[in-house]
Amino acid sequence: MIIDVADALKSEAKAGVFRKPLENKSLAMLFEKPSTRTMVSFDCAMFELGGHSLNLATKQIQTVRGESLEDTARVLSRYAHGILARVYKHEDLLDLVRGASVPVINALSDRYHPCAVLGDLQTLREKKGKLEGLKLTYVGDGNNMANSLLVGCAKCAVNVSVATPRDYRPLQEAVDAAKEIAKENGSVVEIVDDPYDAVVNADAVYTDVWISMGMEKENEARMRVFKPRYQVNARLLEKAKRDVIFMHCLPMHRGLEVTAEIADGPHSIVWDQVENRLYTHKAILALLLADHDRLPLQI
User: Is residue 299 part of a domain?
Assistant: First the structure.
């Protein structure tokens, strides 16, 4: 549903049509962590849909003086039609939800990054013509992206294989949820150690940074574990399908989780992923905040 709306909005934008279903609507955007793609895409999405966004760095609002996130959400709910939050701890996001009386969007937490995955799935469908029955392999750290890809791929009947070191596996909550969903649609979810086994017959190979924001102190320990075994390189992609595509949520570190040869080569679709975040984020906002009769599709 969200991807279908995103496709409709993208088609209209390419034709120069910009409907304004969020006219007179506002979005309060809370950012604890740095952001490029998420912040800019949601800001542009609100503008193009006719709405207004407020970029609120948490160091500039009263949370820095001890106001609780629940109280902050109560305040923002009296002003804005929605709240977007990019936080370090998932529990902080839940505090906002408990206090809010308007929709709260997870723009990233330490557990999940769902908005990014929606753009990834839209891009995967564009490139392959379908989602059901494809195989996506994720190689690297079992972080919030891995967690979200597990659940998102399972919901779309994409077979997903995650290859991580044993001590860096995805959240068990996400694995269990993905496997339960996969049972219903006949797809496959697997968690393995060996990336070379995981990429066999893969339609897409995905990776992310080995050291997420807030984990910089683990740099040396993680490098010893991940490099070079969990790097996406030409040797690894040889095990996948010939027309395999390479995906990354960005930012990426060429020479670490992926070689420059792959990141900038013909298999890479990372810049298409970036673009499609605008359209999936527009779709999320339209579905959550727009009046029903102003949506781009008949829902």
Answer: no
